[in-house]
Amino acid sequence: MSHAKSQPHGSRFAAFLLLLIPTAIFLLIFVVPLGSIISLSLENTALGSRFVTFNAAAENNPDQRAQAVLQDLGAMDQKQLGEVARMLNQEKSGFRSLILDTGKKAKTIPPSMGGLVAFDKRWAEPDYWEIISKNAGAISWRHYQKVSGLKLDAAGNLTIAKGDLIFMRVMGRTLVISVEVTLLTLLISYPVAFAVARGSRRTAATILTIVMVSFWTSVLVRTTAWVVLLQTNGLINNLLVWLGIVREPIQLIFNRFGALVAMTHVLLPFAILPMINVMRTIPKAQSDASRSLGAGPIETFLRVYFPQTLRGVAVGGGTVFILALGFYITPALTGGPNDQMLAYFIADFVNKTLNWGMAAALSVLLLLIVILLICLGKLIQRMLAKRERAI
Amino acid sequence: MKFKAIAITCASILAMPCAVQARDFTIAAWGGNYQDAQRAAYFTPFATDKGLKTVETTYLGGLAELKTMSDTGNVIWDLVMMGATDAQLACDEGLLEEIDWETLPNAADIIPEAKFECAVGNVVIGNGMGYNTKAFAQAPNSWADFFDLKKFPGKRGMTNNPTMNLERALIADGVPMDQVYKVLATPEGVDRAFAKLDTIKKELQFWDAGSQPVEWLLAGNVALSTGYNGRFITAKKDGKPLEYVWNEHIYNIDVWAVPKDSPFKTEAMEFFKYADDPASQAKFSSLMPYGPTNAKANELIPQADLNNLPAGPNNAHALAYSDAFWIENYDALKERWANWVIQ
Question: Which residues belong to any copy of the ABC transmembrane type-1 domain (chain A) (predicted)?
């Protein structure tokens, strides 16, 4: 009796255990990297944990502060000193040599403000002290301040630093390019998907093969192919000149046009495939019925066919848009200086300036925008559904 | 029997990480023809003499890889060729082994600009202007020409970086070469450089890989481009209609360094004997048109080759790149540069 009773519990427990594994994998693959990116954008231990004595020193006692800085710098090994110098130099030019020079001689400098200034007169400038005290905490918002262009002034008010809105501008540009690419992709992929779904078997197979081959080809290869096609003495320009359409080769690459063409091509399969799936589920009989009831071909398409394909358009468009937001190599190779997207700057911070905090903060910005857009999409979907029900 | 086979397979899979640990001597350099020439001049003689098996990989600049190696304790490179600025930055952060110049053979013949705390300067590189000889009737010959859109219309290729480009803007604006870094150290000097860059901003196209300027000039994608002398000269030797302008070019130094805690530290330090040897450097320069850092190597290079190198007379009217200036000012100027590009 009790055995039979415990069985459902047992199977529930087994199911729980079985679910535990995918949950753990999910956490490991998705949540952990996201968490580490977010913590990387805020974390400041490299600076915060090095200025322990300084953080404890009284702010209005210059000699005590000088002594504390010397003690902290003297306690750092070469690697820590180099790291601290690099990070502080990101805030102010010249901080690097100041920290390195002072750090190497920290044990011999008299531990007072006078001694420090005598060693290097830059220590007399309040700027340097302000930057240390601002950046010596365990958590720092300085990366987000740079990303947003917002700054806290001395009085504690948020101000927008003029000309510092660089990453907001790049974010805006990234969104604009992604929207442009999404619209272009949808415009091209709709008729293609329609041809596959409604065309003869042979047409469908041919088009699908072409789409899949392009889908399976490396993004880098497809991008470079566009460089070869679009460049000044490339195939397309030569053809245009030969046909007499233009007299001189025209600029087709290293501008927005080149970036859009290449990105659209790379992303087309992501829109075509979901659209085909949706279009194939719509019975042809519906259109026939609509025609037999007196609707013309255009009305049949607009009122019977098109509304039913919207689900595919939304999935395809959404996928393309989200993928486009993170594009890096394609606009880097085919766009001009003003067509570089946020990912380009993230890569620059990771590889070249070693400012992983900034790279992480920019990644978080991109993530937030995506989340915001998904929420917005859901909201619109819900509102539309409500209206439909009301009708 | 079957069980045994499975057991052996499993054991060998488990043993694989250990096999990777006992790896071969690994050299990271810039790749392409550059690395091919280094292989012929340095790697092969070194590996043969020492009975070592060497593995090569590509390094693309920056400190990211070295920092990761240091943080994880998994040092996968034993020798790396880097720009002198990056090497100094890495040295300050303890990512590289220090060089004991006292014990280094040939040290006395190495030019002083090539001696660093953690790195051995090995190659002198020219960073100047290249052009397609078929594009213009009159050849460009100065940075003033580079900035002259009327005389030389068309796109300009350069890197998306303030380094060297701010110097070029100042030279084009009439600053004498020995004053460039003095002027650039002042806020007015920086403003002046950016104002000059404004005049060609709409025509700029940024290159990333060293091969792009050559491809772009040949394809007509840009009219003039900055680039490494080696790329233009190599293409020219292959019969391409390209020319490199020696006047007012900027030369910097590429260095060899040993990542901190490399398991092959002793062998890596012995590599410098091969890299600093005048005959080997002359051989390298005959294969790849970059200059030697061993002053004695110049005498071993035929005059015809010397004409193609950033060495001797070609450097008579040139600017020596200041690593010290850029180490201090890069962050602030890069930020301003990025802002300038976006606006």
Answer: 171-377
Is the ipTM above a cut-off of 0.85?
no
Whole-angstrom Cα distance, residue B143 to residue A91? 32
Q: Is any Cβ of chain B less than 8 angstroms from the Cβ of A163? A: yes
What domains does chain A contain, in order, with CATH numbers?
45-138 (no CATH), 167-390 (1.10.3720.10)
CATH 3.40.190.10 domain range(s) in chain B: 23-124+253-315, 126-250+321-342
With CA atoms as reference, the chain B residue closest to A103 would be B92
Contact call for residues A358 and A146 (beta carbons, < 8 A) = yes
**Rounded to the nearest 5°, which phi and psi values hold at A155?**
-80, -5
Contact by Cβ (8 Å): B56, B26: yes
pLDDT, one tens digit per residue, over A209-233 is: 999 999 999 999 999 999 999 988 8
CA A129 to CA B154: how far, in whole Å?
Answer: 48
Q: Which residues are CB-neighbours of A293 under 8 A, at least 6 positions away?
A: none
Token pair, residue A341, equals: 């997207």
Residue closest to B78 by CA, chosen among B121, B116, B43: B43
Q: Do A86 and B89 touch (CB under 8 A)?
A: yes
User: Taking CB atoms and an 8 Å limit, are B93 and A169 in contact across chains?
Assistant: no
Best of B59, B92, B212 to substitute, by most chain A Cβ atoms within 10 angstroms, is B92
| Contact call for residues A279 and A305 (beta carbons, < 8 A) | no
Kindly tell me if the per-residue pLDDT of A80 is higher than 50: yes
State the fold for domain B23-124+253-315: D-Maltodextrin-Binding Protein; domain 2 (3.40.190)
